Amino acid sequence: MAESKLPYYPLENTQSLDVLMDAIGDARFVLLGEASHGTSEYYTWRTAISRRLITEKNFDFIAVEGDWPDCYQVNRFVKGYPEAGTTVQDVLKNFTRWPTWMWGNWEVAALVEWLREHNQNQPIDKKAGFYGLDVYSLWDSLEQIVQYLEQNDGTTVEAAKKAFRCFEPFGDDPQAYAEAIAFVDKGCENEVLEMLQKITANAPQFSGDREANFGAEQNALVAVNAEKYYRAMIRGGGSSWNVRDRHMMETLNRLMTLHGPDAKAIIWEHNTHIGDARATDMARSGMVNIGQLVREEHGRENAFLVGFGSYWGTVMAGRQWGAPMQKMEVPRAKPKSWEAHLHNAGPGDKLLLTQELRKLEELQKPIGHRAIGVVYNPEFEAFGNYVPSRIPERYDAFLFIDETEAVHPLHNYRDTRQPPELYPWGT
Fold first, then answer.
1. With contact defined as beta carbons under 8 Å apart, do 145 and 195 qualify?
2. What φ, ψ does residue 328 adopt, rounded to 5°?
3. Which of 179, 193, 224, 309 is most buried (most C-beta within 10 Å)?
4. CA distance 163 to 134
5. How far apart are CA 286 and CA 250, in angstroms?
6. Does any domain span residue 321?
7. Contact 55, 30 (CB under 8 A)
8. Tens of pLDDT, residues 52-108
9. Is residue 424 reached through a cis peptide bond, with omega within 30 degrees of 0 on the bond before it?
10. pLDDT in tens, 108-158
11. Which residues are CB-contacts of 299 (< 8 A; sequence separation ≥ 6)?
12. Last-in-domain residue among 207, 223, 252
C-alpha cells in the first residue's frame, strides 16, 4: 500500500474532533472501540468524544463492556442518587472482578467526575447515565436481586433465593458450574427463568424508583443469560461469544427503551465487539458482535462505529487469566499491518474517515489489525493478535495514536485518594 495516499486528519486536540462530530451527524448509536483494555489514550480520547456527544448532541448515556451491578453504582453516583457514595473512589472500588484495572483506573475516574459535575445542573430526565452491558456478573447480580427484593417485595424474593441456592454449591466459580452441567440438560436454567418472569411481572409494584426497578429486572436478565453463557462456554466454539454479544445488544435495546423514543447511546467496548464482525474472519466462524447487530437492527445510518489503534508503547494486562496485572511493552506493529501503514503514512496521531478509504483498492482486501486482550504476551503477539479486517467496512472512523502508554490503575498508588500527576487527563 502506498501509505502517503492514505487520507487522514491530524489528531492533536479536542478541536481535531470537529470533523468526526460532523461525520457522526444524527446517528443515535456511537460505538467507541479500543485495541486493548489497558491503554490510557483510548480512554481519554473516548472521554473527549463522549463529552462532546453529550453536550453538543444530547446523548443520553454511556454503556460499557462492564458488569451491570458495578456500573449501575457508578450510574447512581453520577446522577446524585442518595447513598450512592461521596467520592469517585467509593464507586470505582466496587470493580473487584479481574481485570480490576479495566474500569478501576484514573482515566475512568476523570470521566465519572465529569459526568457527575455535568449532571448537577440537569433535570433528572436529562442526566447522562453510565451502565454496564456485560453478562459475567451472575453471582453479584443474584445477590443484588435478593437484597433489593427483601426490601421491596417479600413475595417475589423466594424465587430469587431459590435461584441463588441452585448456584450456591459452585462457590462463585463459573468454570465449576459449566463443568458440572456439561452432561445434564438444564442446570439452574429453570430457576433463573422463573425468577426473571416473576420479577418482570411485579417490577412496576416494587418502588417509585423507576431506574432501581429496571436494575432489578436487568440483574435477573443477566442471571438468565449468564447461565446460558456458562453452559455454552463448556461446548467451545463461538456459541458463548454470541450469547455474550447478543446479551449486550438486548441490554442496549432495553436501555434505549428506558430512555425514550429519541434516546441516543454511546457504547465503549473493545474493537472486536464494536467493529462489524462481517468485515473480519469472525464471520466464517458464525460469530456476531454488537457493532454488526446495531447496524442490522437499527440501520447503518443510525450507527457510527469508531475503531482505535496504535503502533507501539505500553499496556496494562496479565500473562494469563487472573494473573497479576503488569505494565508491558507493546512492540512495534508487524510490517504490512494496518497499524504499520498508519505509522508510515506520516508523523503524529491521525483521524481517518473510512468513507474516504473506500476508494483505495488495497483496503478492499483483509489487512492484519492488532487486537490486545486482558491476557497478553508481547513476545508471541505476531502469531495471534492480528485480526484480518476490511477496515472501510469494519468501521466508520478510526483514531490512531502512534505511541501509547498503559492505563493508570487506581490501586497502583499507595494512597488511592491521591491521583497521579496530571490527573484528570484530556480536560
1. yes
2. -120, 150
3. 309
4. 20
5. 19
6. yes
7. no
8. 999 999 999 999 999 999 999 999 999 999 889 989 998 999 999 999 999 999 999
9. yes
10. 999 999 999 999 999 999 999 999 999 999 999 999 999 999 988 888 899
11. none
12. 252
Q: Which domain holds residue 35?
A: 1-56+264-426
Query: Which amino acid belongs to residue 199?
Result: I
Instruction: Decide if 27 contacts 53 (C-beta within 8 A).
Output: no
C-alpha cell read off for 328: 508491558
Alpha helices in 204-333 (DSSP H): 210-233, 239-258, 271-274, 290-298
**What is the rounded CA–CA span in Å between residue 267 and residue 130?**
10
Question: Within this chain, do residues 179 and 230 fall inside the same structural domain, yes or no?
Answer: yes
Same domain, 46 and 170: no
Residue 247 makes CB contacts below 8 A (sequence gap 6+) with 133, 134, 135, 221, 222, 225, 229
Q: What is the pLDDT of residue 426?
A: 47
Residue 111, amino acid = L
Single out the residue of 338, 331, 361, 340 nearest to residue 275, CA to CA.
338
Which stretches of the chain score pLDDT less than 70? Answer: 1-4, 183-186, 412-427
d(CA 423, CA 420): 6
Does 247 lie in the same domain as 268?
A: no
Grid cell in block for residue 31: 460505538
If you search the block for the grid coordinates 489514550, which residue do you land on? 41
Say yes or no: 235 and 312 in one domain: no
Grid cell 417485595 is found at 153
What distance in Å separates the CA atoms of residue 317 and residue 237, rounded to the nearest whole number? Answer: 24
**Which cell is 50 given?**
463522549
Instruction: Kindly state whether residues 241 and 302 are assigned to the same domain.
Output: no
